[in-house]
Amino acid sequence: TLVGDGTARLTGEGIIAAPSSFDVVTATIVVAGDLVGPEAITIANSGGLELHAHTPFRTGVYTFTEMTAGLSGTLRLVPYDDGDGDYDDDYELELRVETLTVAMGGTVSAEGQGYGVGSGPGAGGIYGGRAGGGGHGGAGGQGPVADAFGGTTYGSVYQPATLGSGAGDYASSGAGGGAMHLLVS
What we know:
single chain, mainly beta, two-stranded parallel sheet
């Protein structure tokens, strides 16, 4: 069990070896390398686990027997964006798990993990200090002025596998949603 004070954030850029059953409580582990050993992971009580689709040690797929996002536990899945402007070589994080439990108050999320503000194939426009929303499986929303257009539609609305585009490049705009592929058996 990893326990913190509710604000602790541990980033492992190498290989993190953990026991087969592992709990993350009141701390966040950022796996920027690899996580080996755990088959069953429970995240709870303001704990967090952040898995990255691309690291120097791993590309795309994580496999576990059991994953639980308990009360106020967050599992954040971060897709891969190489930042080169060629959106065809970016990809989702794939999580394969036999049993996935998301308790009331638990979260599995890729929120804000897509393309940054003003980026992506469906990035929103900006005009007169106002921004339009980023597009993806649907068009982005138009901003409060006519020329702050919403981003264009791309990808699949039924089987999305691409990262969401950011809103128009303005100070209060946001990044697009990330992409995840969950295989739960």
